[in-house]
Amino acid sequence: MDMVDTWTETGMPKKVLMRIIDENYQRTVGPNVPSLKQYEAFSSTVYGELMPTLSHEMIQVTKLHEGSLFLDLGSGVANVVVQASLQSGCRSYGIELMHHPARVARDVSEQIKIRCRMWGVQMGEVEIEEGNMLTSRRVDELISKADVVLVDNKVFEESLNEALRPKFLDLKEGAIVISLKPFVSSINARLTKRNVDDISAIFDVTEKRYHSGSVSWGNSGGTYYLHRVDREGYAKIKERFESSHGGHTRSSRTRR
């Protein structure tokens, strides 16, 4: 397409990206919004979306690229899944439990291919699964290879957040988990005898702010969290902790 040849900035211009994303959204998700909002209140299945501007920031800050693997656990209509592959060229996978959003997600992933052909652009591979993120064999296959994992857990029940945490032990060094609620008890907490063997101790956590209009469930701003796997850093801190406390710590991090 001639207009693609005239692009001067590296990669796809943001205006073009947002135009394609919006066209695809209006074509696929827009007509289904009223029915998507019919969910059980105060449950982990409450429907909510990250806006494309916030997704764009997350994709940039985590440095996704063509060789990356992006997972979205609880991907809804897969809007972030397709944006990640379109924006960065990465391979993306999303899993959604609820049938209706998962059905729309399949349409979203198919229609974005049509949009790409119309605009003369390419994107990374997209895979959508309807199922339970806790029991999915595909999640277990992919999580050890993932570079970035998104969990929009703003309304997840605490039991679901707790059930997810052991899966993060399979993440590779340097992988990043993005979430709307932290998977640690407190950000960059001081290591103590109580938390030294906690699963989340492998994470180095950064808190980031998002502006109003970045999410579908409210007009005010908020916070999201980047959990970077840093086992090497944790090992050094734990070694210093054990040395200063006479080596009396539990050793329960090994998975059986």
Calculate the mean pLDDT score and round it. 85
Low-confidence stretches: 249-256
Strand order of the largest sheet: 3-2-1-4-5-7-6
The best one-word shape is: elongated
Q: What is the overall number of helices?
A: 9
Structural class: alpha/beta
Number of separate strands? 7
What sequence of helices (H) and strands (E) makes up the elements? HHHHEHEHEHEHEEEH
Estimated share of beta-strand residues: 15-25%
Radius of gyration over alpha carbons?
19 Å
Largest sheet: 7 strands, mixed
Helix content: 25-40%
**Terminal residue distance:** 54 Å
Tell me what you see in this structure:
- With 256 residues, the protein is of the alpha/beta class.
- It is built from nine helices and seven strands; from the N terminus they run H-H-H-H-E-H-E-H-E-H-E-H-E-E-E-H.
- It has helices at 2-5, 14-28, 33-36, 52-61, 79-88, 99-119, 137-142, 158-164, 231-244, and strands at 69-73, 91-96, 126-130, 148-151, 176-179, 203-210, 222-229.
- The protein has a seven-stranded mixed β-sheet with strand order 3-2-1-4-5-7-6.
- Strand 1 (69-73), helix 5 (79-88) and strand 2 (91-96) form a beta-alpha-beta unit.
- Helix 2 (14-28) crosses helix 6 (99-119) and helix 4 (52-61) packs across helix 5.
- The protein is elongated and about 65 Å long.
- Residues 249-256 have low confidence and may be disordered.
